[in-house]
Automatic annotation (TrEMBL):
Species, as recorded: Canis lupus dingo (dingo)
GO CC entries: endoplasmic reticulum membrane; mitochondrial outer membrane; nuclear envelope; SNARE complex
Transmembrane segments: 203-220
Residue ranges of every copy of the Sec20 C-terminal domain listed in the record: 134-224
Record's protein name: BCL2 interacting protein 1
Family classification: Belongs to the SEC20 family.
The UniProt record lists the keyword Translocase: no
Predominant location: endoplasmic reticulum
């Protein structure tokens, strides 16, 4: 079962991908917007809300990364956070460019409407149809990007699992090494004790032999030289 922290990280990644795609779609809507300015303002309001949600989720993911116990997992998540931040900055740049393009297009359309009148309305209808087709193609492209990013998230999760398994293997080996070290130290103590016991036995044998020789000499002396 996945840890609550891992579930939170997975949810953060999924929602970051979701908000990123929604921001891209809104930016494309701004590019396609042909007016009026109120429509552009409404789209920009939605983009601001999505950016706030995206920024909040990135901050949550960064905090989760800092709370990781293992340095390897922490570095993997921090790299993901950095990538998300770069992508958000890229989206903000695209957003500004889309606004500029849209405002120029609205100004040009308003000028053209004054000059061409009814003909421009028919041209705008054709343009909208073309833009709708373009928007559909872009939507398909964004869905492909979404699938690719989901695969990248899955690969990151697999890499983190591999690192976790490696860490457990190293810990198990360390425990076995500690157990072997204890056995070796116990054997060393036993050998030392045995050597000391052997030295003591030799000393006792020597003392007994000396006592025996002294006794023999004493008896021989009394028998051969009783007057001494």
């Amino acid at each position: 079962m996945a840890a609550p922290q891992d579930v939170h990280v997975r949810i953060c990644n999924q929602e970051i991908v979701k908000f990123d795609l929604e921001v891209k779609a809104l930016i494309q809507d701004i590019r396609d917007c042909s007016g009026p300015l109120s429509a552009l303002t409404e789209l920009n309001t939605k983009v601001k809300e999505k950016f706030q949600q995206l920024r909040h989720r990135i901050q949550e993911l960064e905090q989760s990364a800092k709370e990781q116990d293992k340095e390897s997992e922490k570095q993997v998540l921090l790299q993901e956070v950095e990538n998300h931040k770069k992508q958000m900055l890229s989206n903000q740049t695209s957003w500004r460019k889309a606004n500029l393009t849209c405002k120029i297009a609205i100004d040009n359309l308003e000028k053209a409407e004054l000059l061409q009148g009814g003909d421009l309305l028919r041209q705008r209808k054709t343009t909208k149809e073309s833009l709708a087709q373009t928007s559909s193609a872009i939507t398909e492209s964004l869905m492909g990007i979404s699938r690719m990013m989901s695969q990248q998230v899955q690969q990151s999760e697999e890499a983190m699992q591999t690192l976790a398994n490696s860490s457990r293997t190293i810990l198990d080996a360390n425990e076995e090494f500690k157990s072997m070290s204890g056995t070796i130290q116990l054997g060393r103590k036993l050998i030392t004790k045995y050597n000391r016991r052997e030295l003591t036995d030799k000393l006792l044998i020597f003392l007994a032999l000396a006592l025996f020789l002294a006794t023999v000499l004493y008896i021989v002396k009394k028998r051969l030289f009783p007057f001494l």
